[in-house]
């Protein structure tokens, strides 16, 4: 019998890490997470990325069962788990930070031609985001949960 919950978790982890440049296949990911067997010839960093993403996913799931409210502290905890083995201390002109500890970046971010919000606005944007999410979660009806999840993801990514 197929464990659909486990299948979905592995698939989400694989897709998330693939977007970040991980070289493991979905099968490699499944074997790593289920049997602790690494893929021959693939970088250690990619295996660690998979493990960290899976640990963060499980942590979020545990906290959701406890109905934990979203907060900047919670986001930092998740970030620290997510980046535990694959990120590090970074120096920038505007300050230093360690994403492996969940610290918020004091630096401008852009991808290709897309610039994200000025780093000085991030704390306020995150506070507003958390407040909005917590309010919406309290009011969501079962048939609207998928739309809410997509909206939350989209709005969070816009802040980064």
Structure commentary:
The structure is a single chain. This protein has 160 residues and is mainly alpha-helical. Helices cover 57% and strands 8% of the residues. It has helices spanning 4-19, 26-35, 44-65, 72-82, 122-139, 145-159; strands spanning 89-92, 95-98, 110-111, 114-115. Strands 1-2 form a two-stranded antiparallel ribbon. A two-stranded antiparallel sheet has the order 3-4. Helix 1 packs across helix 2, helix 1 (4-19) crosses helix 3 and helix 3 (44-65) packs antiparallel against helix 4 (72-82). The protein is globular, with a radius of gyration of 17 Å. The termini are far apart.
Task: Provide keyphrases for this structure.
160 residues, mainly alpha, two-stranded antiparallel ribbon, 57% helix, 8% strand
Blueprint (SSEs and pairs):
Layout: H1 4-19, H2 26-35, H3 44-65, H4 72-82, E1 89-92, E2 95-98, E3 110-111, E4 114-115, H5 122-139, H6 145-159
Antiparallel strand pairs: 1-2, 3-4
Helix pairs in contact: 1-2, 1-3, 3-4, 5-6
Q: Tell me the number of helical segments per DSSP (H or I, 4 or more residues long).
A: 6
**Order of secondary-structure elements:** HHHHEEEEHH
Mean pLDDT across all residues, rounded? 90
Largest sheet: 2 strands, antiparallel
The parts where pLDDT drops under 50 for at least 5 residues are none
Major sheet: arrangement of strands: 1-2
Tally of separate domains = 2
Beta-strand content estimate: 5-15%
Helix content: 55-70%
Alpha carbon gyration radius: 17 Å
Q: Give the N-to-C terminal Cα separation.
A: 40 Å
Tell me the quaternary state.
single chain
- Assign an overall shape: globular
Secondary structure class reads mainly alpha
Total DSSP E strands: 4
């Amino acid at each position: 019998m197929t464990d659909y919950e486990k299948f979905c978790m592995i698939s989400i982890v694989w897709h998330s890490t693939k977007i970040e440049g991980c070289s493991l296949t979905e099968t490699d990911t499944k074997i790593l997470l289920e049997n602790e067997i690494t893929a021959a010839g693939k970088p250690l960093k990619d295996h660690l990325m998979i493990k960290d993403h899976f640990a963060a996913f499980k942590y979020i799931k545990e906290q959701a069962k406890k109905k934990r409210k979203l907060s900047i502290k919670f986001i930092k905890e998740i970030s620290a788990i997510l980046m535990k083995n694959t990120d590090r201390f970074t120096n920038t002109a505007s300050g230093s930070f360690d994403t492996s500890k969940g610290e918020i970046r004091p630096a401008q971010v852009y991808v290709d031609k897309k610039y994200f919000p000025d780093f000085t606005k991030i704390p306020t944007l995150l506070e507003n985001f958390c407040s909005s999410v917590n309010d919406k979660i309290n009011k969501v009806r079962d048939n609207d949960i998928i739309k809410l999840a997509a909206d939350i993801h989209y709005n969070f990514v816009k802040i980064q």
